[in-house]
Amino acid sequence: MNQKGFMQYHLKRSRRARRLRVAVYFDSRVVVTAPQTLGQNAIEQFLAAKQEWITRTQRRFARRPRIVLPVVGDYSDNKDEALRFAQSKVLQWNRIYGYSYKRISIRNQKTRWGSCSRKGNLNFNYKIRFLPERMTDYLVVHELCHLQEFNHSPRFWQMVATALPDHKYLRKQFRALVDAK
Ligand SMILES: [Zn+2]
Questions:
Q1: YgjP-like metallopeptidase domain spans which residues (predicted)?
Q2: What is the CATH superfamily name and number for domain 75-177?
């Protein structure tokens, strides 16, 4: 969300909040929780006052070591096993959903872990086999749900939550991995 050129932040309105709160997440997202009726100006003033702390915290998170993936050799050495692995994971999680898909392919991309095409094809990075297990689960469930819902709407996340109630936590962990080569 981008509020008129001001720093990017997510705004949550809360009936219970008595005052403004700001949190900086591990993936450097800024989330502001505000009382229901508080005006935009008050929120932005508050954020301006906190700006220095926010930037400092974001920098600190950025410096944190990312989860390092093992060196896994090259694509052609791993492609077939990665495909079998991805197929079995998709089958496993699709028992919950029962969606239909066309084909599963393995890709060699630096920063993409998975995708779902509008035609109903699922693609996964050849390093999928080397992700921590919960991360694989998150990736596969995420792409599976895109077969049904081609966006990240609340409905989409509801579907993800059917299989993974802790998906918010998993997503945060996953994002820490995304640009790990
Ligand atoms: Zn997605």
A1: 18-64, 80-175
A2: Metalloproteases ("zincins"), catalytic domain (3.30.2010.10)
